[in-house]
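Researcher: Checking consistency across runs. Here is OmpR/PhoB-type domain-containing protein again:
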Amino acid sequence: MAVSPEENRFSFGAFVLDLQTGLLARDGFVVPIRPKTFTLLMHLLHNPNRVISKDELIAAVWERAVVTDDALTQTVRDLRRILGDEGARLQSLPKRGYVFAHEPAKDNGAKPGLDGRHPPSVDLSPPGSASHAASIHAALLPPADLSRIIGVIYDCTLDPTRWETALSEIAAVMDAESAILSLNDLSRHRVIIHKNVGWGEEGIAERQKHMPEIHARLGEWFATGAPLDEPYVASRRLPPSYLDSSPYVQTCLKPRGIVDILHQFLIYTPTHLSELVISRHLRHGPITHREIGISALLLPHLRRAVTITNVLDARSVERLRLAETLDLLHYGVVLTNSDGRILHTNARAKRMLDEGRFVTGRSGLLAAATTRASQELARAIRIAARDEAALDGAGLSVRLAGESGGELAAHVLPLNGSDLRISLEPAAVAAVFIGAPPPLDPVHSKGTLEKFLRERFGLSKAETDIALEVASGDDRAMVADRLGVSAAALRNDLGRIFLKTGVRHLSGLVRLLADAGHNQHGP
């Protein structure tokens, strides 16, 4: 659909939808939204106050793909959830379709807050541009503070003892009383990272008593198909009646003056689980859009740091022992300058480069076997050399397809943002870690897990496919679309899978698959 410049941006209530950048903002802060949900909202706004049939919406959102009415119903439900009170604009008309009530706004200003002041507006210029990054950052944190915190986060990859400092910085800018960061290897029942500030030994011990309740609520959250990037905020998900009767709230949180909790998931795969937990004290009040925005801003950097910490197995890396430490890794590691020129490789990376199946080192430059992956790596290295705060998701889990099949993943760590990282190799601007792609590494091959589920529990081929797809970490709506089934059918199939395998929640299924890979192949 051709859109004129005047129609590039829609305002309704506290929301602004920008078609050029693909961003939705509320009260000046970017709101996470799935691509299909974004397309649905865009079509509705292009056709305000008009009854739109289900067939028209399905054609607009899914184009030539064959989907059922259930897929549309799920997407409509997701849109109403995102819009909150504004979701009442979207009305269902039985046997006719949907209508979105909307009066075009004359300006794009956000509504003032209770104090009569307007919140800082979000610049919806193209992502990656200097103006876009500056506006998003300035609306949430002063640029100097953001750069400092990101630098501290990346330092933790080389020195895990610095995580307490990083958590203190994060808690401070989010006006939080305490924070927890954890990384668990589910396949080997190992805790790789468990750091906290503000809780103390007694607080952590008390919180551990309530982990079944915490996991139950988070399990329900994942069962709704919520995107991994969307944080779980207790005050927005749990009714007052539950909070009044919750043992966790009443005996653990309330005595410590904690009035709200935010869970931001960094990794959620069959083999690993990592999350950041932020607690807000009574004097600061519940979590607001600002804290959610800061969490989204730090998410890609935390995810990269935790992913690489896992690769390094939480080892501290020092210049004097650089070669020795890196040679112990199962991942290949390449240090490069801003042009991608190779300055150092560990033993495994040297073998990879010699084989040339996934990566090459022709003319001394790091490149992937495919043009697209090479361009993504080069772009991430250039950004790392210029401004690590602008990396966001670039260079994280870059898919490296082999010329004769197979796949690896590459993660780019910026090196010139602090004295600690510069000291490793002064001329290097990035370290590229190359190894097994998430979420399943080679010892958890799909064929092995299929055989385990079918022989051990009698799952059918269709049930096995569903179990592996759901456990991969994607939300249920995406899995249903991929398998060509309705959301209701997927729920019924999962019920049978849970019954046959003896698990009660998705987290139990994930743990079951992780154990299967570990027990059958060993450490």
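Researcher: Does this match what you'd expect to see?
Model: One thing to look at in this run: Residues 48 and 68 are 24 Å apart (CA to CA).
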